[in-house]
């Protein structure tokens, strides 16, 4: 994925709160993915219009952290989620 | 405390226009008049979500044979469950499917009987069914819904597995479930006509492995080697009463959809028992939980908490004892039964006993014309 990519949850994938186990999960057909805190924050920002660059801007201002580092981190995380079929470009 | 279940299988009805000879419904089919009503199902969906279920599989029979299917999908979705419809696809048109999608349906799982139309229609016992399924699959993807194709495989269609993989790709399915027939109920009655040969099985396994590589990122293929050719059993349902519960059309709350045929059980009645009470406190759910109930050779076996001694329904179907080690395990004293069944199927023909209601309802008097 590049900074211009607009990632979104893959078709059939839904983010849901799992109250019984006090966690959030991404559900798909016959599968379930439990994101860690950072992945969850990023998944929540996938609205189908924000690009990777925009997500990095958002997180950089939220945490007053270096933007380029954040962009590199979320790119590798989203590449990983794409390989697992959780998100698509 | 018992960990909560992840998924509910709601068998809404045993009615189905198809007659598959391996149908997983019990041989004693429930009549329409005995089915749970809309309000009871809706209450169960809320209870399932509160208990911790994340997914619901609306199944049957053919779930869309229920006239209230739209209300049931809406109820499941509003309860917060990821809602999957397991269907033969022959009863729905585009308008009804769009309505289901609008009601919150998340995913469709469509069964196909073969890749070759004449054979598919013969196996399903329903003329024209295959063509309807293909039309339906196109409607599903056009509605923007994710599609899984479910192919139940056996001796009479396994040679065409590569064509079924191509079909899944052509129809735009994201996932293909290749399920070998499980031999209890109707399928046990048809075992000799359905059992694949070793040669077929090896070719199928190779075809799946090649397709997984060739279509990575495009098609996920779920495939498990069948019990009769295995030396260790599968972990059935992730363990009895551990991840999964099912409710039958008449409202029996079960640890697995096939369990209703096991004798000596008093399965909780959903009309009078909550899902939570059934899950946490019923004798039926507790009986085969954990490892304490296990006989030798499971007792103390290193795999006891991996496969949980295999399938209780298969153990009963083959040995008459639901608490026995699954004969699919080579350590079971009954393991030779599987080899004998393979032998018998070698010499058998291809005729089916189709799934039919045991007793048809009495014929209605036909009023005279005019
Ligand atoms: S297996 Fe065949 S007969 Fe049984 S419910 Fe499914 S489509 Fe109907
Ligand atoms: S003996 Fe029992 S626990 Fe051990 S592998 Fe066989 S079925 Fe599984």
UniProtKB/TrEMBL annotation, chain B:
EC number(s) from the headed UniProt entry: 1.21.98.4
Pathway: Cofactor biosynthesis; pyrroloquinoline quinone biosynthesis
The keyword Oxidoreductase is annotated on this UniProt entry: yes
Reaction(s) catalysed (UniProt annotation): [PQQ precursor protein] + S-adenosyl-L-methionine = E-Y cross-linked-[PQQ precursor protein] + 5'-deoxyadenosine + L-methionine + H(+)
Keywords (A to Z) from UniProt: 4Fe-4S, Iron, Iron-sulfur, Metal-binding, Oxidoreductase, PQQ biosynthesis, S-adenosyl-L-methionine
Molecular function GO labels: 4 iron, 4 sulfur cluster binding; cyclase activity; iron ion binding; oxidoreductase activity; S-adenosyl-L-methionine binding
Entry note: cofactor: Binds 1 [4Fe-4S] cluster. The cluster is coordinated with 3 cysteines and an exchangeable S-adenosyl-L-methionine.
Cofactor(s) this protein cannot do without: [4Fe-4S] cluster
Domain Radical SAM core: residue ranges: 2-222
Xref: PROSITE patterns: MOAA_NIFB_PQQE, RADICAL_SAM
Domain of life per record: Bacteria
UniProt cross-references to NCBIfam families, sorted A to Z: PQQ_syn_pqqE, rSAM_more_4Fe4S
PANTHER family: PQQA PEPTIDE CYCLASE (PTHR11228:SF7), RADICAL SAM DOMAIN PROTEIN (PTHR11228)
Family: Belongs to the radical SAM superfamily. PqqE family.
Identification of the protein by name: PqqA peptide cyclase
């Amino acid at each position: 994925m590049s900074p211009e990519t607009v990632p979104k949850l893959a078709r059939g994938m839904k983010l849901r709160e799992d109250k019984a186990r006090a966690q959030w999960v991404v559900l798909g057909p016959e599968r379930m993915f439990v994101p860690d805190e950072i992945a969850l924050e990023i998944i929540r920002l996938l609205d189908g219009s924000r690009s990777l660059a925009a997500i990095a801007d958002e997180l950089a201002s939220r945490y007053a952290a270096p933007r380029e580092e954040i962009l590199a981190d979320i790119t590798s995380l989203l590449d990983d989620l794409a390989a697992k079929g959780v998100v698509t470009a | 405390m018992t960990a909560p279940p992840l998924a509910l299988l709601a068998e809404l009805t045993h009615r189905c226009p198809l007659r598959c000879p391996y149908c997983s419904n019990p041989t004693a089919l429930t009549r329409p008049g005995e089915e749970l009503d809309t309000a009871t199902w809706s209450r169960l969906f809320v209870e399932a979500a509160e208990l911790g279920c994340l997914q619901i599989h609306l199944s049957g029979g053919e779930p869309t044979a229920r006239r209230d299917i739209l209300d049931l999908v809406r109820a499941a979705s509003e309860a917060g469950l990821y809602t999957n419809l397991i269907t033969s696809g022959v009863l729905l048109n585009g308008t009804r499917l769009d309505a289901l999608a609008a009601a919150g349906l998340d995913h469709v799982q469509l069964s196909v009987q073969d890749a070759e139309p004449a054979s598919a229609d013969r196996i399903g016992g329903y003329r024209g069914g295959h063509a309807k399924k293909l039309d339906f699959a196109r409607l599903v993807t056009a509605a923007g819904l994710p599609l899984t194709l479910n192919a139940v495989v056996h001796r009479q269609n396994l040679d065409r597995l590569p064509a079924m993989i191509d079909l899944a790709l052509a129809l735009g399915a994201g996932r293909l479930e290749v399920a070998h027939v499980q031999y209890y109920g109707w399928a046990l009655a048809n075992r000799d006509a359905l059992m694949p040969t070793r040669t077929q099985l090896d070719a199928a396994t190779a075809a799946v492995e090649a397709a997984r590589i060739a279509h990575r990122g495009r098609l996920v293929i779920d495939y498990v080697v069948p019990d009769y050719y295995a030396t260790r059993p599968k972990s059935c349902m992730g363990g009895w009463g551990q991840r999964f519960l099912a409710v039958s059309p008449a409202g029996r709350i079960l640890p697995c959809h096939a369990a209703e045929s096991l004798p000596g059980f008093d399965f909780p009645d959903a009309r009078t028992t909550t899902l939570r009470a059934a899950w946490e406190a019923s004798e039926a759910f507790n009986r085969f939980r954990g490892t304490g109930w296990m006989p030798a050779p499971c007792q103390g076996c290193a795999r006891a908490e991996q496969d949980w001694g295999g399938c209780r329904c298969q153990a009963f179907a083959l040995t008459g004892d639901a608490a026995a080690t699954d004969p699919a395990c080579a350590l079971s004293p009954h393991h030779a039964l599987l080899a004998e069944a393979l032998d018998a199927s070698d010499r058998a023909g291809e005729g089916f006993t189709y799934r039919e209601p045991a007793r048809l309802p009495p014929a209605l008097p036909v009023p005279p014309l005019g």
